[in-house]
Amino acid sequence: MVLAAIPSPSTGVLHVGPIPLRAYAFMIILGVLVAIVVTDRRLRARGQQPGLAADAAAWAVPFGIVGARIYHVITSPDAYFGAGGHPLDAFKIWHGGLGIWGGVAGGALGVWLACRHRGTPFGLFADAAAPGLVLAQAVGRWGNWFNQELYGRATDLPWAVRIDPGHQLVAGVSLYHPTFLYESLWDVGVAGVLLWVDRRRRLGRGKLFVLYVALYTAGRGWIEALRIDEAHTFLGMRLNDWVSIVVFVVAVTAMVVLRRPVDPPATVGPAQGPLTADAGSQGVDTASSDAGSSDAGSPNAATDFGPQPVPGEVPQSGR
């Protein structure tokens, strides 16, 4: 007997007058805001100008949404192009259905374009963005709860999610694994690990982002295996499982073989005031060239959200 279960919302839409506010979209927007705030602080701790994260988000969000939708439609085509499917539903993104791998690829393309426009090293930005990005994913997953979708197998565990009859994949069964909750908690844990590693040890440029990819895919693999929504399979496994395995192997390999410069945090003395030169605009390693500066507006930025220098250690240009 199940003594407790997570109830599902009765609706995923709140109407403010004639305007429908969809919880799925709201959670995505909230996640983007979280990513911008965290990334902006971490970029300033690395000597970059304020506002770079918001500028990059303006590129990354539309590219990411389009990429995520394309990936979802390609990997779940029957709902749109199969028997009884409606091709135009592929454009109804407010009904849910975003593939994380397409979102990461599209968002990365948008960030790369933004970094080229601002002259900021892409690897530096990626490392600064990694914790905020995975926190955004943790928030965005709650959109699946509002839509009552992408849950796991039936279960009688106390933390099962209760699904309404109209959304049940197994008729008459109302309790399922809350995979949205599993992934959200895993993502928060990954963010904590990234921040801890970044404070304790300075990695070569791009390696913190690669570590995020490896940790995320490790969790995504077992969570994906619990899901029962319709998906294409290959050699007995869901396509997303294979993608997780391949991306995990690539990420671990990159951790081993990458040899890039280290980006220690910039520190600014109180007499210098805020950074005035856009040092990153010429692709300069600002952390190395401004080793004696800190973000005056955020004195604890380097220790709270960026790598913490090891006492007595001389910053290195590469490791």
Overview of this protein structure:
The protein has 319 residues and is mainly alpha-helical. The model is unreliable at 266-319 (pLDDT under 50). Helix 1 packs antiparallel against helix 5 and helix 5 (122-140) runs parallel beside helix 8. The strands form 3 sheets. The chain has a two-stranded antiparallel sheet. Strands 3-4 form a two-stranded antiparallel sheet. The protein is built from 11 helices and 6 strands. The N and C termini lie far apart (56 Å).
Q: How do the helices and strands line up, and which of them pair or pack?
A:
Blueprint: E1 13-16, E2 19-22, H1 23-45, H2 52-75, H3 78-81, H4 100-118, H5 122-140, H6 142-147, E3 161-162, E4 175-176, H7 179-200, H8 207-224, E5 233-234, E6 237-238, H9 239-257, H10 286-289, H11 301-304
Helix pairs in contact: 1-2, 1-5, 2-4, 5-7, 5-8, 7-8, 8-9
Which structural class do the helices and strands define? mainly alpha
Major β-sheet profile: 2 strands, antiparallel
Number of strands: 6
- Note the quaternary state here: single chain
The SSE order reads EEHHHHHHEEHHEEHHH
Key terms:
319 residues, globular, mainly alpha, two-stranded antiparallel sheet, two-stranded antiparallel ribbon
Short description:
With 319 residues, the protein is mainly alpha-helical.
